[in-house]
């Protein structure tokens, strides 16, 4: 094989590695962005949170309240702004039980919590 062909081959291999690496990084970043659900309706957002809490804490009693389940979730020390979650819950409960108007915007922290809750956590004695 001539020297020029070897030199070209040695230059193409790193170029291929860079191209494939950028493709892998792009797919990974797209996957991460897609991991958080896109929900506009606060009612659906809290329904998703409720389902995530049920999966995370299978020992929850029937008829549990979101406040009870969130108090268990707080013990997990997840990186969530709990103040924003509590505020969103208060607004949602004011709508659901108190007749207030439906919040216009979904609190992103509620969706973030629903997405990062682990599955099947057992809590001793609640």
Number of strands: 0
Beta-strand percentage range: under 5%
Order of helices and strands: HHHHH
Q: Strand pairing plus helix content: what structural class? A: mainly alpha
Query: What is the global morphology?
Result: elongated
* Termini gap: 72 Å
Tell me the major beta sheet: none
Oligomer: single chain
Radius of gyration equals 23 Å
For the residues shown, what is the average pLDDT? 82
**Total helix count?**
5
Low-confidence segments: none
Q: Helical percent range? A: 55-70%
Could you walk me through the main structural features you see in this protein, from its secondary elements to its overall organization?
The protein has 126 residues and is mostly helical. 66% of the residues lie in helices and 0% in strands. α2 (42-56) packs across α3 (66-74) and α2 packs parallel to α5.
What characteristics describe this protein?
126 residues; 0% strand; elongated; mainly alpha; single chain
Q: What is the gist of this entry?
A:
By secondary structure, the chain is mostly helical.
Write the layout of secondary structure elements.
Elements: H1 3-35, H2 42-56, H3 66-74, H4 82-98, H5 108-116
Helix pairs in contact: 2-3, 2-5
């Amino acid at each position: 094989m001539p020297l020029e062909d070897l030199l070209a081959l040695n230059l193409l291999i790193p170029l291929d590695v860079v191209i494939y690496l950028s493709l892998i990084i792009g797919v990974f970043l797209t996957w991460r962005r897609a991991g958080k659900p896109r929900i506009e309706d606060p009612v659906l957002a809290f329904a998703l949170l409720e389902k995530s809490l049920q999966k995370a804490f299978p020992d929850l009693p029937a008829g549990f309240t979101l406040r009870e389940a969130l108090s268990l979730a707080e013990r997990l020390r997840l990186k969530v702004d709990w103040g924003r979650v509590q505020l969103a819950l208060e607004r949602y409960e004011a709508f659901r039980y108190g007749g207030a108007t439906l919040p216009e915007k979904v609190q992103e922290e509620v969706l973030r919590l629903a997405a990062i809750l682990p599955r099947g956590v057992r809590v001793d004695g609640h």
